[in-house]
Design brief:
Protein name: EAL domain-containing protein
Strand content: 15-25%
Largest sheet: 8 strands, mixed, barrel
Bound molecules: ligand C2E, magnesium ion
Structural class: alpha/beta
Distance between the termini: 55 Å
Order of helices and strands: HHEEEHHEHHEHHEHEHHEHEEH
Strand order of the largest sheet: 1-2-4-5-6-7-8-9
Number of strands: 10
Radius of gyration: 20 Å
Length: about 280
Amino acid sequence: RAKRSSKGVVRFFEPEMDVQVSTRRSLEMDLRSADIASQFEAHFQPILSVQSGILCGFEALMRWRHPSRGMVSPMEFIPIAEETGQIDRLGRWMLHEACRQAASWPDPLMVAINVSPVQFRSGGLLEVIEDALRLSGLAPERLEIEITESVILDDSAANLALLRQLRERGVRIALDDFGTGYSSLHYLKQFPFNRLKIDRSFVREIDNSPESLAIVRAIIGLGASLGIDTTAEGVETAAQLERLRAEQCGELQGFLFSPPVASENVAGIIGAYFGEEKRVA
Ligand code: C2E
Ligand code: MG
Ligand code: MG
Ligand code: MG
């Protein structure tokens, strides 16, 4: 192995890198053999109206309770799952699990579920979503699929066709992490998105970077003129909330109101915040 190189030979792998590589390998193996239903959980982060504070729904976020490592972040395991093909069964499980839970929430609370570009590539995604809706009994209008623009970059024609079929069935489509990709404006012409999610990197700086504020303002304005809802991601401070309110942003999610919570805490949030006008901070 490279780290056993003798004197004078360049060490390609620093010791820490080697640890990362072996961690990754073992996560890969653990993911392949994991019993999803016992190790994975759907957590839910509330999404609220900026103006009224009314609860609109939740974004489902996957959690891996690893038997020996504890909680592993999706930032770590989703890319591994995508590269090893495991994302298909994980993603299918998530669609079923999140729809099943959402079906028990009062109408019209929504659930937003992240879908990987790899799931689009694998084929059969439409059927997976239809199955999840049918088995759960969730109305398609209460499901929002979150995609990133790489879905459209990947295989424009096939993926756009699939997105259109989902829209025809009533499912809503959101463009996640908006503003971080390449040529976002082009996609808005190609597909009638229902929602733009303003990336956290802009929201975070909305108070101290005039550029970030200008970008957030432009995205909200664009959404308003195209009839597309806007959600600010990662709202952490009351000052950010005030600013978003002044800019007439539609919805928000963020630690200011609540982090993603385990499913047993969802009912409490619904009980406290559904249907009543309450200020979010
Ligand atoms: P995302 O879809 O953009 O989700 C938002 C992320 O921001 C979540 O991280 C959430 O916990 C975090 N977040 C929310 N509010 C705040 C805040 O106020 N401050 C900060 N610092 N962070 C906040 P999480 O749960 O770690 O997920 C990370 C990413 O992993 C997601 O980004 C999404 O791209 C991916 N992911 C999570 N669950 C799934 C899934 O079921 N399927 C797929 N394909 N990807 C998933
Ligand atoms: Mg998302
Ligand atoms: Mg996002
Ligand atoms: Mg993200």
